[in-house]
Design a protein that fits this description.
With 123 residues, the chain is mainly alpha-helical. It has one domain (2-115). It has three helices and two strands, in the order H-H-E-E-H. It has helices at residues 2-25, 34-56, 81-115; strands at 59-64, 67-72. It has a two-stranded antiparallel sheet with strand order 1-2. A hairpin with a 2-residue loop joins strand 1 and strand 2 (67-72). Helix 1 runs antiparallel to helix 2 and helix 2 (34-56) packs antiparallel against helix 3. It is elongated, with a radius of gyration of 18 Å.
Length: 123
C-alpha cells in the first residue's frame, strides 16, 4: 500500500537522477577531470543497478530467533523465488561496488589534491 508506493517513488526517482548523472558523464568535460569521470561512471552504473534491483525486490525482513526471514512481494515475485533472490544478490553486489568505488573516489581526490591531476591508467 503506502509503503510500496513510497518505495516505488524513491527508486524511480533514483533511477532517473542517476541516469542523468550517467548521461552527464558522457558529455565533454575538462581535460583535468576526464580521468575522474571514469569513477563517476562506475558509481552511476552501480547506483542505477542497485535502484533497479531495489525496484524489482520490495522485501520485508522479519527477525526470527537467530535468523531472518525475507518476504519479497515486489514485481520479482511474479517470476518466482529464484528471480527475487537473483535481484537481491544483484542489489548486494552493486551496493558493494558502489561502496568500494566511493573509497576509490576518496583516494583519487586525495591524490589530485596532493599531486595534481591523475591519469586514466592510474585509475
Amino acid at each position: 500500500p503506502i509503503e510500496a508506493l513510497l518505495h516505488i517513488t524513491i527508486t524511480c526517482s533514483s533511477i532517473l537522477l542517476n541516469g542523468l548523472v550517467l548521461y552527464a558523464t558522457f558529455l565533454p568535460s575538462p581535460k583535468s577531470t576526464r580521468s575522474y569521470t571514469i569513477l563517476m561512471r562506475i558509481q552511476a552504473l552501480a547506483d542505477v543497478t542497485t535502484s533497479v534491483a531495489f525496484l524489482a525486490t520490495i522485501q520485508r525482513t522479519i527477525p526470527c530467533a537467530w535468523s531472518f526471514i525475507l518476504v519479497q512481494y515486489g514485481p520479482c515475485s511474479l517470476f518466482g523465488g529464484t528471480a527475487c533472490y537473483t535481484f537481491y544478490a544483484l542489489m548486494i553486489a552493486a551496493s558493494t561496488v558502489a561502496f568500494a568505488n566511493l573509497l576509490l573516489c576518496m583516494g583519487a581526490r586525495f591524490w589530485m589534491l596532493r599531486f595534481g591531476s591523475i591519469s586514466p591508467q592510474r585509475i
